[in-house]
Design brief:
Elements: E1 5-8, H1 10-21, E2 25-32, E3 35-41, H2 59-62, E4 66-75, E5 78-83, E6 90-95, H3 97-110, H4 118-125, E7 127-132, E8 158-163, E9 166-171, H5 174-183, H6 206-211, H7 217-222, H8 230-234, E10 241-249, E11 252-259, H9 280-298, H10 312-316, H11 323-331
Parallel strand pairs: 2-6, 6-7, 7-8
Antiparallel strand pairs: 1-9, 2-3, 4-5, 4-11, 8-9, 10-11
Length: 334
């Protein structure tokens, strides 16, 4: 079946987004001071239409930095638990291809591996992704090296490509096809995703990663690292979290889930105070092996890597740890 496509003037798209915002939660790139983030908007006037990719990925729509999982109420000897699942429909507009690929990778953990995470599942079911192709790759982007592209529609429901007259919309899923059918935007047969091979850098194979596990390279690279965890928090696919209980009032508590990172010194500390990776080099090595070896092995994804090439970790690192540098170094002949 050929993908359903439509040509849309920007004013028509803006009007449709205004209507969506009146019916459900609309999330889009929004400029807050000098930073662009995916945030709820009340209408198209608040959207940063021409902005580059947001500082944080769309991951936080489905896997928030902090979220309540359940409440606990104690009344005498009785304990009552109430699961707090998210409610309401959401449309996310302006999703970049690297971010949609990140969500697909998170699916491997939260949806495709039992037990299914009910909070993540509910948000995925209730959310529509409207993608926006990048006009060009940014200075730190390398999505073409890890299986993506600036115009890759993977993971979207509806993909938009900028044209001189507005946008070309391509339906990717049934959700996307229903949107085009309901809006009545004029159909077209031209345009869409194109193969893009720019800015490719070599990515070591799994066999190559295995040979570098005990290299002194990780110790040398970690001399820069501050263990600040900024790289994990901006990453579209980092998925580690901690769970804890907090008091709301006497006898009332909430169980919350918060982002965590393997770069932290106390990550996975066990009873008695033992730390499985006490040295920075071990923690830095684990981050890269998780992206390029462990993730695909654990979730049976063959050669797929858990990096979307968005370059955010490069942008935020205060000491210049560059994932492209690591890939290039490890890919050199021995």
């Amino acid at each position: 079946m050929n993908a359903k496509k439509a040509a849309i003037p920007q004013e028509d798209l803006a009007a449709w987004l205004d209507a969506v915002a009146g019916q459900q939660t609309l999330v889009a790139p929004r400029r807050e001071q000098d930073v662009v983030l995916y945030r709820p908007v009340t209408g198209s006037a608040e959207i940063a239409w021409e902005a580059e990719r947001p500082l944080l990925s769309v991951k936080e729509v489905f896997f928030p930095p902090t979220e309540q999982l359940l409440t606990i109420e104690m009344a005498g000897t009785e304990v009552r638990l109430k699961e707090t699942l998210p409610e309401g429909q959401t449309t996310v507009f302006g999703v970049r291809p690297c971010d949609a690929r990140g969500v697909k990778l998170l699916d491997a953990l939260f949806l495709d591996t039992r037990p299914v995470d009910p909070h993540y599942q509910r948000r995925r079911q209730q959310t529509t992704l409207i993608g926006l192709a990048c006009k060009e790759m940014g200075p730190t982007c390398f999505c073409t090296s890890v299986g993506g592209a600036p115009d890759d529609p993977t993971g979207m429901d509806l993909m938009l490509y900028t044209t001189p007259d507005g946008y070309l919309a391509e339906a990717i899923t049934d959700k996307g096809r229903r949107i085009l059918e309901e809006t009545g935007w004029p159909e077209t047969v031209s345009g869409g995703a194109a193969q893009n091979e720019a800015n490719r850098i070599p990515v070591p194979s799994k066999a190559e990663w295995q040979t570098h596990f005990n290299d002194e390279y990780w110790l040398r690279m970690s001399e820069r690292c501050l263990s600040c965890r900024a790289c994990a928090y901006v990453c579209p696919t980092c998925r580690c979290f901690a769970v804890r209980d907090e008091m709301l009032a006497p006898g009332e508590f909430e169980r919350i889930r918060c982002w965590d990172s393997c770069a932290g010194e106390n990550y996975r500390r066990v009873a008695g105070g033992h730390k499985p990776r006490p040295e920075k080099g071990e923690r830095l090595r684990n981050r890269f092996y998780c992206k390029f070896f462990y993730f695909s092995e654990q979730y049976h994804l063959e050669e797929t890597v858990a990096c979307t090439g968005c370059g955010r970790c490069i942008d935020v690192c205060p000491v210049g740890v560059d994932i492209r540098e690591v890939l290039t170094d490890l890919g050199r002949p021995q």
